[in-house]
Structure to design on (143 residues):
């Protein structure tokens, strides 16, 4: 009995620690379960260049993980990414590369992949997700 309690105690500590560290950090795994459609689009259209977990490959910026999607982009040169709408506008008009493929996804896939990516970057996306109606009010980088 006391052995079971001990195991339960350790499990709860790990659970609490896990939750605390995932709010401070960022979990791409959680983003996958919260935004499954976007995760699929990402895997198909983006991961080859930005990495399976969005960590970036040589020559491509990180798009997920803590600190991803800073105000002026990894290069410091993007128009400011203040809201989810700014990120959507950038991605839907500049990605996926190469140039010939820019804008090639259905609009719904762009929304889905941006939702997934924002979650994977630890940005606050409401539970109901991202849409054209809400994107402007979702803050990605506070002023
Ligand atoms: C063929 C390679 C390639 C593919 C495919 C690709 N990207 Fe990119 N992406 C890049 C490169 C290179 C840059 C850097 C561009 C720059 O700084 O001007 C970039 C920049 C970005 C940025 C800006 C990040 C920052 O902080 O500067 C985002 C966001 C992004 N890509 C998202 C996506 C998404 C979403 C997809 C899939 C729909 C995608 N990319 C597909 C190569 C790619």
């Amino acid at each position: 009995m006391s052995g079971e309690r001990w195991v339960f105690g350790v499990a709860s500590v790990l659970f609490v620690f896990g939750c605390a560290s995932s709010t401070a950090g960022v979990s791409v795994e959680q983003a996958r379960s919260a935004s499954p459609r976007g995760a699929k689009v990402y895997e198909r259209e983006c991961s080859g260049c930005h990495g399976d977990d969005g960590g970036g490959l040589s020559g491509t910026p990180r798009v997920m993980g803590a600190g991803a999607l800073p105000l002026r982009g990894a290069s410091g040169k993007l128009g400011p990414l203040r809201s989810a709408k700014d990120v959507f506008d950038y991605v839907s008009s500049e990605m996926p590369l190469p140039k010939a493929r820019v804008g090639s996804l259905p609009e719904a896939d762009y929304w889905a992949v941006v939702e997934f990516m924002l979650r994977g970057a630890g940005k606050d996306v409401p539970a109901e997700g991202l849409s054209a109606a809400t994107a402007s009010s979702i803050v990605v980088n506070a002023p």
